[in-house]
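Q&A log
Question type: sequence-to-structure
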Amino acid sequence: MSREQDLQLVREYTTSESLIRHMLAVEAAVRAYARKFGEDEEKWGTVGLLHDFDYERWPDAPDHPLKGSEILKDRGYPEDVIYAIKSHADYLEDCPRVSQMDKTLYACDELCGFITACAMVRPTRLEGLKAKSVRKKMKQPSFAAAVKREDIIRGAEDLGVELNEHIDFCIAAMQTISDELGLTPASGD
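Response status: OK
Response body:
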């Protein structure tokens, strides 16, 4: 499958631009880790991009990601891609995260959402955002309350990376596509 086919699939099932931007952010972070680990960047990018493509239609567990995994299987996606996407759901006990790709998706998913929330309240958005600021926001339970802080912490631990380094790494990956994410500095109109 090509990235263009992946994007077509995302747009076929997702109309929410914020959800699409989330998938793009996770894709950027997962791809960056694939480069760092010397893994298949295209395959890992597919996992990051498609991990929530079914969420808008089937937001309830376990439909998400199981409905999506059926669609991916029907369309010929590799089994390890489908497994990694299923493994990002904690409630699927028969899909523990075992591969580095599985662990990377999980580690980047909630964190990229939280980084986006942090960037949205800053005039410079992603520009100049550091782990210290993100960690400070993590201590505020009312800020981006739907994001599970324990998942962010567990994800970094399972991936074997120090949390601040992980946060800065994901910020840097997201900065490479800040225009697509709508996270460039706000203009002073």
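Response note: The longest helix spans residues 17-37.
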